[in-house]
Amino acid sequence: MSSTFRLAVGSIVVGVVVLGIKLLAWWLTGSVAMFSDALESIVNVATAVAALIAIRIAARPADASHPYGHDKAEFFSAVLEGVMIIIAALLILREAVHGVLNPVALDLPVEGLLVNGLATVINAVWAWILVTRGRARQSPALVADGRHLFTDVVTSAGVIVGLLLATVTGWWILDSLMAAAVAVNILWSGSRVVKESLSGLMDEAVPQATLETVRSVIATEAGGAMEAHDLRTRHAGSSTFIDFHLVVPGETTVFDAHEICDRIEAALREAVPGAMITIHVEPEHKQKHSGIVVLD
């Protein structure tokens, strides 16, 4: 069982535990905001299951039907998570409007705050683990799941602040107003997750810093060639696809051209983990006098 898969399973376990704690906090208080917070935790469990399924699919090796692998399955999971975040925010807004129109005093607010605070701490720690480990393993599904949990942490923090103010002032409408404010923040977070995931599905190029690393490696390691042009990149899960044309002198043998390509590929794989490289070798009359100039 891979570490990525274990983290995905852990998200489901943590999600179920936190959901139970938040439902207890809602039961103790009757708070609209806490009920909304529990609604989002239901989404957390659903998206954690989706992430687990996507990670299992993405881990499958390339086959005849999917020669480039299954890495993009994680982007589909991340899009689903973003959509579900938005749905959760809309549900919270609905409950908040109802609470504003019909504010009621809360039962056992202090006990509810303590219980909800415990759930918030658990979520914050696990969200940090998912984002840091997900980035290290280049897993869009884990990173999206972690960011989703961070929105839950923000939600819970807002709920706690709202309940504290409502308890101190006796203005119980603050409970619902805080839930509405947090819902707006969650909407923004969900739209961001969807946008970033769709960019992966649309084969967006790698970040500029990674692109500069690729260009630098090619320029440094392509000794014996003349130039590299038509460089293209895209990423899919843990894989980064790199392809370009490499111009070599006309007298270069096939063996020597192959040696140059091997040297470039080895350096790129070391600089960009998970790199999948395709190099098209061309004779010198194909020079475009643009692109990457090979350093002597």
From TrEMBL:
GO biological process: intracellular zinc ion homeostasis
Cation efflux protein transmembrane domain span: 11-202
Keyword Cell membrane attached: yes
Gene Ontology CC, one term: plasma membrane
Subcellular location per the Swiss-Prot or TrEMBL entry: Cell membrane
Keywords: Cell membrane, Membrane, Transmembrane, Transmembrane helix, Transport
Residue intervals passing through the bilayer: 7-29, 41-59, 75-93, 113-132, 153-174
Matching Gene3D superfamilies: Cation efflux protein transmembrane domain, Cation efflux protein, cytoplasmic domain
InterPro entries reported for this sequence: Cation_efflux, Cation_efflux_CTD, Cation_efflux_CTD_sf, Cation_efflux_TM, Cation_efflux_TMD_sf, CDF_Transporter
Domain Cation efflux protein cytoplasmic: 207-284
A GO MF label: cadmium ion transmembrane transporter activity
Primary location: membrane
Membrane disposition: Multi-pass membrane protein
NCBIfam families referenced in this protein's UniProt entry, alphabetically: CDF
Protein family: Belongs to the cation diffusion facilitator (CDF) transporter (TC 2.A.4) family.
Family annotation (PANTHER family): MITOCHONDRIAL METAL TRANSPORTER 1-RELATED
Protein name: Protein p34
Species of the source: Wenxinia marina DSM 24838
